[in-house]
Amino acid sequence: MPIRVKLKKVPAPREPSPGPTNYVYVELPDIREGDSFRDVIKKLSRYFSAVITLPHTFEQLRTSSAGSELRSLVDHLAMNCTNPTIVNALLALKWHYVAEDKSRDLSGARAHACEIVAWRFLGRLSEREAVDYCLYEIPELDRPDPIPETIEEEPSSERSPLLPHSNGSYGRRSMASAVGSVKRGQLLQSLSRLTASFNIEEGQNEEEDPTAPFRGLNALEIAAISDSKKFLSQGVVQKIITAIWNGDIVFWDRLSVDGIKKPRYYNPATADPFSRLRVPKYLKTWEIFFFLVFMALYYTVLVERDIDVVTGTEYILYLWLAAFLYDEISAWKDAGSIFYTSDIWNLFDMIMISLGISFAILKNIGIYTHTPEVVEVAFDIFALEALFMVPRICSFLSLSPYWGTLIPCFKEMAKDFVKFMILVIIIYCGFLTTFSLVGRNGFTFSRMTLILTKIFFGSSGTGIEIMNDIDPVFGPPLMLLFICLSSFLLTGSLTGMLSNSFSRVITQAREEYLFVYSIYVLEASTSNRLTHFLPPFNLISLVIFRPLRLFFHSETKFRAGRIALLKITHTPVVGVIMLYESFRRRTVQDDFAGFKGPSFHQEDTLQPSQAQQSSGDGKSAEVADAKEAGNEGSLVLSQMESRVNEMASKIDRLTVIILSMQEKEEEHRQQQQREKEEREKKELKEKEEREKKEREREEREKEERELREREREENERKAKEEREKKEREEKEEKEKREKEEKEREEKERQEKEEKAKLEREEKEKREKEEKEKREKEEKEKREKEEKAKLEREEKEKREKEEKERQEREEREKREKEEMAKLEREEKEKEDKKRQEAEEKARKEQQEREEKEKKEQEEREQQVKEQEENDQDEQKPTDE
What we know:
The structure is a single chain. By secondary structure, this protein is mostly helical. Among the domains are: 37-246, no CATH class; 279-397; 401-511; 610-712. 73% of the residues lie in helices and 0% in strands. The protein has a two-stranded antiparallel ribbon. Helix 3 crosses helix 5 and helix 19 crosses helix 23 (509-525). It is flat and about 200 Å long. The N and C termini lie far apart (132 Å).
């Protein structure tokens, strides 16, 4: 049987990837070391607007030729740019492009470009330089200081700041209020005004600085605000964040009145142990302990359920609630409203606190007024707190990769569910209205609501049973339509939508987890207070130091008192932390063991060589089959068919050869990769050994220098003692000679001193009187100011009460008008119904009268006919 070869049609040429048709060279931005944050943003924005002119996906910009300009920009920045605000500007621009309404696809491509350039630029830097750029805060003045070469030129220690160029920008005291007052809308508006002001020349000044809301924010904070999840998931960024989490990078290394917030590497040998109270890992541990105690108190109070008195457990619970509330307020002030509201668990905390306060108020009111019903309502409200308290446990699990992935999925599904339920409610209300009106004779509105709710949740049989009772004509089709709509269409759509939401988030599991992890670390590390009291110790600080602020105005003494109280109350906690860290240092040799970002374990996948091998085996089988078929039909093949078969066999053999070559090449590449990894491991090990030897040599040199310094100081001390002894002897001889002269002058001096003493006492007396007078005047002035303040507060309170009273009167007036309107409408309806009834009765009366008249006429006619018949019958009889 001849073999017929069917050649495939030549495919059409592939459409090229999106890109500019004509290449236009765009000059790289000239970002100088002294450029301000606003200038850097303008230059970068001009460059991205000129380079990114077509929509691209993130992967296209990262892997294809569409991102070649970005690679050139990264090379240029890595070699020529030393401006410390470069990463801040890139991430701020990314946020601006994401929030831009017009040309979303193009703006999204530019946002991806900003994020790619930011993390690639950090990848070109050393670890210390990456820390410098990521933790650089935009200074208060619009002149950022350059980053000096401190790592290579000067020896660093735990007290050398990571950002020596900041000039005290980390010591700002107003960061909490600044960040707390800055809203996302203000930041976006600032960026919009900044990127739109390209027509302003370099020498001109705007009326106000658009970058003012960004002052005090570092690159990591801007990345968290702008949802730069890919940037935060990079290894170099995660090393910094996890170092902050573990306390390898600290912002406060000692607790003193002159302490300044600066990022430093932690050194346990010289740092203050109480500075470990600011480490996010230990803060989270204490938060878990505090929450478990709070949960135990909650369940104890609910189980006891004493409605007559406030028990001791409830007093402790009230104390815990007060500490919880004060800690949340402090967290909001420290982290700012942006970071505080970005964590959904903070909303859970505020709801729990509100329910607890409501319980305390209602129960005390019920006990005071002797109304057990109010106390029962208080316990019922308090029972609602379990709806938020128990799920709050998930917040402690969100730092693990598994739970950190599931919780964002659940949040996204909940958002889509709420949106979908709006459509469900609209459809439900339409059917409810129809069924209530159609079946109004047999079903009430509340009963119909319950029936349709049961049907929506799967009880379709209930609707089928009552559809004829609703209405024989409209009931069955409407009920069947509602059952099909709710049981199949809506339920299936909801399931598919939630599945789509889950798959959309789970594909970015690593980024979602690391984003949640980064948000918590940044929220815990942005506090600018020197002393942070853990709950419930914060109540001690509140009770002691808040009243003292009214009388003591010395900030130094006030801070010293807070530090002393912190050390007294938190000594056991610090002791446990030090014990844990000493054990950890003995078991982990690396000085910065925690300086590693969270990692994910990927599942093993099939090697390409194995796939190619299986493909090659399939090809070999196909070649063998083709050869056998060719041998069986070789006698009947024509000359052209023989040539075609020969060519096909050659192509098959060539395919097998190419596949084998690819397999060998893949094996060779894997072998080279393994050798490269072994060389890198060996070089890394040698580098670690060299660094260890270098550290040992430096320690020996340091000890020798200290020994020589001590010997020199000892020699100087001995020589100094000999000189002092000689000077003492000379001084004694001189004093002996001068003693006689002093005795002669002593009498005169005593007289002068007595006279001066009298004058001095008189002067001190006058000064004391003047001081008492000034103090009295100041006291009267303060009393007047306090009195004026109280009067202003009383006036504001009266104005507020008057305003509330007016609003209440207006509201009551509107309600009365609405009631009167409703009554008028009801009266009009009743009058209309009464008129219709009277009209109907009048018509019926007329009909009855006409009918009676007609019947009377018929009766008269019948009587008349009867009389005529009687007369006719009587007439023959008479005849």
